[in-house]
User: Fold PCAT2 acyltransferase from Picathartes gymnocephalus.
Amino acid sequence: QTALQGIILLPLRAICITFILLLAWLSASIATFCQPGRGFLPLKGWRRRMIQTALSGLTRTAYFMMGFQVKVKGKVASLSDAPIFVAAPHSSFFDAIICALTGMPSIVSRAENLSTPVFGTILSSLQPVAVSRQDPDSRKNTVAEITRRALSRGQWPQVI
Assistant:
């Protein structure tokens, strides 16, 4: 009976997750379409709310469809209390759960990730701090950008 359930559930889950991923891509595309100051100015108004609500909800739903149920203990620090927070070790697809549960903050990511089909659009909507491994000044530039965002007095979302 469990093999039969797997035969039925696996394709259903894959279809649902694919549909959720396409909805997330569509939401990210709409929120960043004709974005003023693309990448240099923070998203504001309906664009930011759309990223926070739609992408957060879709990410949670996708993980639920994969069989993960996440419970949060405690309270997420507000932007004024913690403009920067750290999630470690960040080396897997579980990082997206942290982003969804914390209101879709900006992240630090490899610049190459932004050119990935579908995921790159979704990642770009989070307005990441892009790290270029080819640029010798990348570390200094990344620290400067994180500092600039942290000192923006709430104009930029939290950085994870």
